[in-house]
Structures are given as C-alpha cells and as structure tokens.
C-alpha cells in the first residue's frame, strides 16, 4: 500500500549528495507548485475526509488493497490510521516545502521523531546525536530507548566534525541525529559536512528542522530524513499539536507497512480536521517566517548595542553566522528565536516577570512560533529533562532566556515595551546596560 510507488522496496539508502551538488530552492514557490485539492462541490478549499474507514465497490478490491496492489497513490483508501486523503494532502505540501519526495503528518512532533528512530534502528542499535537537543528528544535517546529497546546514543558536539566522525562506528551506528538550529543554544549545524561524514560510513542522517522551516532545507543539504514539530511555526497559532516526517517515498511506505511500519502499528494518527486547519496555514507560512526572522534580527541588534549577552545566528559575531548565511534559503532571514543569557535563573525570572507582567512585551510560556513573543528559561523548563552536567555540556546557561519572537503589534511598540522592562531591571540593580 504505497504512498507513491507500489514497487518501492520499503528501505532506502543514505543520500550520496556532496556539498558541491547542493541546491537551494524557494519553499514558498514549491508549495504553490504542489497539487491543490478542491472541495467536494467545487469549493476553493478542500473538503475534510472525516471517515475512519472507506468502502470499496467490488469485493476483490479489498484484497488487492491489503496486498499492496492498490493504494493511496491511486486514490484507494482502507482506514484513516493508515492513510487519510486530508492528511495526505497536508503531507504533500509539507514535502514540497522541505523538498522531499514524500512526507506524512503525525499527532505530535515527538511521535514523528520516535517513529522514525524506531523504524530505522533495530534492538541493540547505536545512534550518534547532538548533545544540544530539545529536552524531550534528549530524554527519549538517553533514557527511554536504552531501557525499552536497547538502543544507545553517543552524544557529541556536532560543531566538532572530528568528534562526530570518531563517534560514528561503521557497521554499528544506524543514525546521526541533530537539529538544524539547536534548541535552545542556537548552534547551526553544518548539514552538508555532517551528512558527508555519516554517508561515508553508510549512516543515515535525521534532522529536526522545527526551528527553521522555510529558512533551511536540510534534505537539499544532504539530510536523509527531516522531522518537524508542526505545533510550532508551521501551525503558528499555539493551538495544535502535530508532527511530520519528510523523506523518500520508500521510507514513508515502510513506516506505513501493515506488518513492520512504525507509524501504522504505533498509531500516532493525525486527525483529518487538524490536517485541514494546518493546510489552511501553510500558504502564509513564508510571510510569517520572514516577519518572525526580521523582528528577531532587529531585537538582537538593538540588544547587542545595549551590551546585553544576546545569542542570535543573524549577528556577525555568532560562531556559525557565515555558515547559516551560506546554507539558508534566500530572503528568509536567520530564524525567529533569540536567546538572552542572564547568567542566573533568578535574573532570568526577574526579566521575564517584568516583560510579561510589567510591560506586556510577551508571555512566559514554552513552545515557539506564536504571533506573540513567548519566553522561557530553558534550563528549568524545556531542557529540564537534562542533568545539570548535560546542560553545561550543551552550553545551556542557568539564566538562558529563550525568546520566540512574535510579530503582533509594531516593532517600535514592542521594542519600547522591552526597553522599559530592561530599564526597570537596571533600576533594581539586576544588571547594567548602556542606557
């Protein structure tokens, strides 16, 4: 029951694309070029296929569907845990955005990540992963998978290519896993070089691109699989939990296999009503990302001038500024997240309290990609699954404030609110700036 090609083998080989073969594309243009579904009665919006199960016209058709002869590629559907037309439509657009052959959408970002890992790693397998990861992913790799599956992970600094090469054991390591822009330290991965190192040893590369949709296209840079927490920028409304797996059609087919497919058998199914809502948001994702990135750049530049310890890949003093500039899709900026290192959790909390309760600059909340600015102290929130030693190794300061920069209101209005909060912090003696 294939996604694209019923002759797919269900396995895929790591990409052999070299850095000299890298191509850039405009994700927004690719989305426009994807197939547009019209509604049942000619509506400009597609209809929602809410059925859990699907009928057939002839008895023998069902046997042909279960044997894999007929599938969604020919508009034959069995059951919505397997394939659903509305979810499939959203998947096509996310695949177009990422420049991959196929994609499939799931009920959460963590379900996308865990399903890919379980599909590609057998019991007793080995993974090499970045030491700077979202806390939930780190916990999955460091605690859950060793206990439940005997899959062990070696964590490394992926900016040190030699250490990555040393950590990968040819014939044993199955995956190299990292984030395109790390959460929360904003380290930019050298995707082409990391892919080259992994592929030279026959290892597949899985990249979490949640922080950089539209900005980076990891599959075009050598990644084999791209995963997303669609809950974040792609949704944009902080009202939906969803995920996506993007990669070769053979991978998606294997993950939907009736006997061996992680997505099919573990069941992280996306509701078609959720898929419809997300499909309506994809067309303006490019516009939203450009504004998120422009605001983040403006704030980071102004904060830097005030003498604050700001981390943002768009600043020229960021260690990977030139790398991101060379890899990013043109005109989308450097990402919508910036970090402000307040050194201690106490100072971080005071600042966030002023920003939310004093000047209404943003909200103290986890997640990202919302139209309002969201702030959290990573060490005590989204990275709290990591030990103090692991956070230190990942470069997460106890006072690191992660800001997902929103675009609501004018830039001048919002900067004035931020500036007033900083002035109050200075008046209280919490820190000194160039006021």
UniProtKB/TrEMBL annotation:
Signal peptide location: none
A GO MF label: pyridoxal phosphate binding
Presence of keyword Lyase: no
Cofactor: pyridoxal 5'-phosphate
Protein keywords: Pyridoxal phosphate
Domain of life: Eukaryota
Modified-residue entries (N6-(pyridoxal phosphate)lysine), positions: 232
Pfam family, any one: Cys_Met_Meta_PP
Record keyword tRNA processing present: no
Chain segments carrying region Disordered: 1-20
GO terms for cellular component: cytoplasm
InterPro entries membership: Cys/Met-Metab_PyrdxlP-dep_enz, PyrdxlP-dep_Trfase, PyrdxlP-dep_Trfase_major, PyrdxlP-dep_Trfase_small
GO biological process: transsulfuration
Membership in a protein family: Belongs to the trans-sulfuration enzymes family.
Descriptive protein name: Methionine gamma-lyase
Gene source species: Kalanchoe fedtschenkoi (Lavender scallops)
């Amino acid at each position: 029951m294939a996604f694209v090609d019923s002759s797919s083998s269900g396995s895929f080989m790591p990409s052999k694309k070299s850095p000299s073969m890298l191509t850039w594309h405009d994700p927004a243009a690719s989305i426009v070029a994807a197939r547009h579904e019209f509604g049942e009665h000619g509506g400009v919006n597609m209809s929602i296929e809410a059925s859990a199960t699907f009928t057939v016209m002839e008895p023998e058709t069902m046997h042909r569907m279960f044997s894999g002869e007929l599938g969604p590629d020919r508009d034959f559907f069995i059951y919505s845990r397997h394939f659903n037309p509305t979810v499939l439509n959203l998947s096509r657009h996310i695949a177009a955005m990422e420049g991959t052959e196929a994609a499939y959408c799931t009920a959460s970002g963590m379900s996308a990540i865990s399903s890919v890992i379980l599909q590609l790693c057998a019991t007793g397998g080995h993974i090499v992963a970045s030491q700077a990861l979202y806390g939930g992913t780190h916990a999955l790799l460091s605690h859950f998978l060793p206990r439940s599956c005997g899959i062990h992970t070696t964590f490394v600094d992926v900016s040190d290519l030699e250490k990555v090469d040393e950590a990968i054991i040819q014939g044993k390591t199955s995956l190299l896993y990292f984030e395109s822009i790390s959460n929360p330290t904003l380290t930019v991965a050298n995707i082409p070089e990391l892919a080259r190192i992994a592929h030279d040893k026959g290892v597949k590369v899985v990249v979490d691109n949640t922080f950089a949709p539209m900005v980076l296209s990891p599959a075009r840079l050598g990644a084999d699989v791209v995963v997303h927490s669609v809950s974040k920028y792609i949704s944009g409304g902080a009202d939906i939990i969803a995920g996506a797996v993007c990669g070769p059609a053979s991978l998606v087919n294997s993950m939907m296999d009736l006997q061996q497919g992680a997505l099919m058998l573990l069941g992280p199914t996306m509701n078609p009503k959720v898929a419809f809502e997300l499909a309506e948001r994809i067309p303006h994702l490019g516009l939203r990302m450009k504004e998120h990135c422009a605001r983040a750049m403006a704030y980071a530049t102004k904060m830097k001038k005030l003498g604050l310890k700001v981390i943002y890949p768009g600043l020229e003093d960021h260690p990977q500024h030139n790398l991101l500039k060379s890899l990013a899709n043109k005109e989308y900026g450097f990402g919508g997240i910036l970090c402000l290192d307040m050194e201690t959790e106490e100072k971080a909390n005071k600042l966030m309290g002023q920003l939310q309760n004093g000047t209404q600059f943003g909200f103290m909340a986890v997640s990202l990609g919302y139209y309002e600015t969201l702030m959290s102290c990573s060490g005590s929130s989204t990275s709290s699954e990591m030990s103090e030693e692991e956070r230190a190794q990942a470069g997460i300061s106890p006072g690191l404030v992660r800001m997902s920069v929103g675009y609501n209101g004018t830039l001048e209005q919002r900067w004035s609110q931020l500036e007033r909060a900083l002035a109050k912090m200075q008046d209280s003696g919490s820190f000194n700036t160039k006021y």
